[in-house]
Specification:
alpha/beta; eight-stranded mixed sheet; 11 helices; about 400 residues; about 30% helix; TIM Barrel; 2 domains; Lyase, Ornithine Decarboxylase, Chain A, domain 1; single chain; elongated; eight-stranded parallel sheet; binds pyridoxal-5'-phosphate
C-alpha cells in the first residue's frame, strides 16, 4: 500500500460503509480510470440485511433507480430482495439476474401503455398508479393486475421532495381504487413517498393517517385493501448526522398503531439510497486548483467529475458528500466545481467545504457514500466526457 493512500483521513459513519483499506487494496489491483465509482458489494449485502432486520415485518422492494447495476441487483436478489422498477429496461435488468416477475412491482405512475403491456407479458402483475388515464391503460393491457394508488404527501424534512410530481389527492386515490375494482383489477392498497433523504422520522405520519382513512372508507363499501407501501426516503449520513433507521421504524410503528386500529395491513417499503449509498466511493482527480483574483480568500478546486458526470444530486447543494483527500491539513475554504463548460457545473459554492492547502492538480479526491444516484445519472457525451466507469469489489461471501 503506498504512503499516499495510507494518509487518507476517514470519519467512521453509523451505517455500514466501505472500509478505506478495501478501496485502497482494490485500486492497487485494477487499472481504474478517473473518475470512477467503486462499489463494494459486501456493503450492499450488509446494508440490505441490516435494513431487513430493522423492517422485519415488511416486504422490501429495492428501488432500482438508486443504482441499477446488474452486480448490485444480483447481490440484492441473492439477499432476498424484491424490486421496484420504473421502466421496462429496469424490469429486464431484474429478470436478467434471476428475479421472479411476481417479486417485481412497476411503480412509476408515468408510463406508456405499451410498456405496461410489455411488463404484463413478462409476468408483472403489480402496478402503481396515480391518475385515471394510467389506470385505464393498466385495465386495458394488464387485466386482472393488482393496483396500488399513490397519494401525494409533502412532509418537510426531505432533501429531495417528490410529492409535487407524484401522487394524487386522497379523494382521487379512493376514487381510483374504486374504479380499479369496477375495471376488473385488484385494488391492492395505498402508496406514498415522504421524499428522499428524509431527515425526519415522523415524516411518514401524515401519509399513514391519510392511507388509513382511504382503507376505512373503502372497507365500508366492501373493498378490502391489503397493503400499505411506505415508499423510500430512509437517509444515510453524508456530512450531517442522521437519525438511525431504528428511529424510523419506531416512528412508523407508532403511527401504524395509532391510525390502523382495526388491524395493520401488509407493509411494503422501497428503500433505494439506504441500501446502496454507503457502498460506493467515487474517485475523482483534481484538474486545477486556482484563484480568480489575488485577493480571493478561497480557492476554486476543479475536479474531473461534476454535475453532469454523475453528481446530479449536488444540484442546489441538496446532497453534500463527505470528501477525503490524501493530504493532511492545514485546510482552507474552497469552491468545488466540475470540468465542463457549463456555468451550472458547480458542486458546492455555499456549503462550507475546506480542503488541504497542499491539494494540487492530479491529486485524488474521494466522495464517500456515493453509491446511490451517481453513476446512472452521468451524461453520455456532454462536452466530450464519457460516463464514469464503475468497478465492483466482490462480496466477501462470493
Ligand atoms: C426513488 C423511489 C424510491 C427510493 O427512494 P429513496 O429515497 O432512494 O429510498 C422508492 N419508491 C419510489 C416509487 C421511488 O420513485
Amino acid at each position: 500500500m503506498s504512503q499516499k493512500r495510507t494518509g487518507h483521513t476517514h470519519v467512521v459513519l453509523e451505517t455500514q460503509e466501505v472500509p478505506p483499506e478495501r478501496v485502497d487494496w482494490f485500486l492497487d489491483h485494477v487499472q481504474a480510470t478517473s473518475p470512477c465509482l467503486v462499489m463494494d458489494l459486501s456493503v450492499v449485502h450488509e446494508n440490505y440485511v441490516e435494513f431487513a432486520k430493522n423492517f422485519h415485518n415488511a416486504h422490501i422492494y429495492y428501488a432500482v433507480k438508486a443504482n441499477p447495476a446488474a452486480e448490485v441487483l444480483s447481490t440484492l436478489h441473492g439477499a432476498g430482495a424484491n424490486f421496484e422498477v420504473a421502466s421496462v429496461p429496469e424490469l429486464l435488468e431484474c429478470l436478467a439476474v434471476g428475479a421472479h416477475p411476481g417479486d417485481i412491482a412497476y411503480t412509476n405512475p408515468i408510463k406508456k401503455r405499451d410498456d405496461i403491456g410489455k411488463a404484463y407479458a413478462l409476468g408483472v402483475r403489480a402496478f402503481t398508479t396515480d391518475s385515471a388515464p394510467d389506470l385505464a391503460n393498466i385495465a386495458q393491457v394488464a387485466p386482472g393486475s393488482s393496483v396500488t394508488c399513490r397519494v401525494a404527501v409533502t412532509p418537510p424534512g426531505a432533501r429531495s421532495p417528490l410529492g409535487n410530481k407524484f401522487g394524487c389527492s386522497q379523494d382521487m386515490a379512493a376514487a381510483l381504487l374504486r374504479e380499479a375494482a369496477r375495471l376488473g383489477l385488484r385494488p391492492e392498497g395505498v402508496a406514498f413517498h415522504p421524499g428522499s433523504q428524509q431527515l425526519n422520522p415522523h415524516a411518514w405520519d401524515t401519509g399513514i393517517e391519510l392511507s388509513a382513512q382511504i382503507f376505512a372508507e373503502l372497507a365500508a363499501e366492501g373493498i378490502e385493501l391489503n397493503s400499505l407501501n411506505l415508499g423510500g426516503g430512509f437517509p444515510v449520513r453524508y456530512i450531517e448526522p442522521v437519525p438511525p433507521i431504528s428511529a424510523y421504524v419506531a416512528a412508523i410503528d407508532g403511527a401504524l398503531d395509532r391510525h390502523f386500529s382495526a388491524g395493520i395491513p401488509a407493509i411494503r417499503v422501497e428503500p433505494g439510497r439506504a441500501i446502496v449509498a454507503t457502498a460506493g466511493v467515487l474517485i475523482s482527480e483534481v484538474v486545477l486548483v486556482a484563484k480568480k483574483a489575488a485577493s480571493d480568500t478561497h480557492r476554486w478546486v476543479y475536479l474531473d467529475v461534476g454535475r453532469y458526470g454523475g453528481l446530479a444530486e449536488t444540484e442546489q447543494e441538496m446532497i453534500a458528500y463527505q470528501l477525503v483527500t490524501g493530504h493532511d491539513g492545514p485546510n482552507g475554504p474552497v469552491i468545488l466545481a466540475g470540468p465542463t463548460c457549463d456555468g451550472d457545473d458547480v458542486l458546492y459554492r455555499k456549503t462550507p467545504y475546506s480542503l488541504p492547502l497542499a491539494l494540487r492538480q492530479g491529486d485524488q479526491v474521494r466522495f464517500l457514500g456515493a453509491g446511490a444516484y451517481t453513476a446512472s445519472y452521468a451524461s453520455v457525451f456532454f462536452n466530450g466526457f464519457s460516463p464514469m466507469a464503475t468497478y465492483y469489489i466482490p462480496s466477501q461471501s462470493d
